[in-house]
Write a structure and sequence with these properties.
CATH topology of the largest domain: Rossmann fold
Radius of gyration: 22 Å
CATH class of the largest domain: Alpha Beta
CATH superfamily of the largest domain: NADH:ubiquinone oxidoreductase-like, 20kDa subunit
Number of strands: 13
């Protein structure tokens, strides 16, 4: 069996809620099929507080082998580096101390969600709780465990980033680890699993035709492309949200909201409204990461000149008002 321990610290629990919505197959079927044994999870386990603490101590003593330690939520280091903002109930010991000790026992340590990976929402603003990620503090390597830390299996912290994570991102990486199929080269430059970060959120977006012709939405609820005016950065965000949407159907863009690049460090501090596109001389600053600006400007001008009337009509409407038909 592949033993997994799941802990929560400074966060909202949204990644667990997302995980519980795994389907085709459901979560427990997925775990059973790859031999994953959840030692404890705050939303799934029936163990009492005493039983839970006993499990932790047995892991530390070596009586229970721990394959994967999963943390959801940021590490709360405050006040003044003591970690006393999050004392693990019944132990009198800060959660961050438990995490340091358990990470030395686990063959792999996973940061589940952008809070655990980079600090996330909990680290936003003045960060009074001194929140950080397991091995990153925002964009900087370090965090709780330090720059050069590696697990007993010689892996860095695996950052399953997202706010929240897609259930498949979590079950995929746990299944790969359980079957011995994940290697360090399967992680990207931020140690996120490449099985979802080798894609852009733009891939599979239902608004792609509007993007190609630069037929843009002007307000939330419009069905046109949201990059030009409404802050969407799906052409830069690394994730496959529109290729395998939540529950087979949903994504932020499908729900009418722009992509905010929640798999990236410091997405929570955009220095602007999430629904605003910063521009210089009328040109969006947030262009596709792998396209030269001059090309984008030239192609945009040509695209807008060739935009079909159908797309112009529909881009600023909340539903399709002009269906496909013959050229006017």
């Amino acid at each position: 069996m592949f033993n997994v321990l799941w802990l929560q610290s400074g966060g909202c629990g949204g990644c667990s809620l997302s995980l519980l919505n795994a389907e085709s197959p459901d979560l427990m079927t997925r775990f059973k099929s790859t031999g994953i044994n959840m030692l404890w999870h705050p939303s799934l386990s029936e163990a009492s507080a005493d039983e839970f603490i006993h499990v932790l101590n047995d892991i530390i003593s070596g009586e229970i082998h721990l394959d994967a330690l999963c943390l959801e939520g940021s590490v709360m280091q405050g006040p003044n580096g003591t970690g006393k903002f999050h004392i693990l109930a019944g132990t009198g010991k800060p959660m961050m101390t438990w995490l340091e000790e358990l990470a030395e026992k686990a063959q792999y340590t996973l940061a589940i969600g952008s809070c655990a990976a980079f600090g996330g929402i909990t680290a936003a603003g003045s960060n009074p709780g001194d929140a950080c990620g397991l091995q990153y503090d925002g964009k900087e390597v370090g965090g709780l465990l330090g720059t050069d830390w590696q697990s007993p299996s010689k892996f860095p912290v695996i950052n399953v980033a997202g706010c929240p994570t897609h259930p498949d991102w979590v079950t995929d990486v746990l299944s790969q680890l359980a079957m011995g199929d994940l290697r360090t080269e399967h992680l990207d430059e931020l140690n996120r699993p490449r099985n979802y970060t080798d894609h852009l959120v733009h891939h599979g977006c239902g608004r792609s035709e509007y993007y190609e012709y630069k037929a843009s939405a002007e307000k939330l609820g419009d069905i046109g492309c949201m990059m030009e005016h409404k802050g969407c950065i799906g052409t830069q965000a690394r994730a496959d949200c529109n290729i395998r949407p939540w529950n087979g159907k949903g994504s932020c863009l499908d729900g009418g909201y722009p992509c905010i690049n929640c798999t990236a460090p410091e997405f929570e501090e955009p220095r602007k409204s999430f629904t605003e596109t910063p521009k210089i001389a009328g040109i969006p600053i947030g262009l596709p990461t792998d396209m030269p600006k001059a090309w984008f400007v030239a192609l945009s001008s040509l695209s807008k000149a060739a935009t079909p009337k159908r797309l112009k009509d529909n881009a600023t409407a909340s539903k399709i008002i002009t269906p496909p038909g013959k050229q006017n």
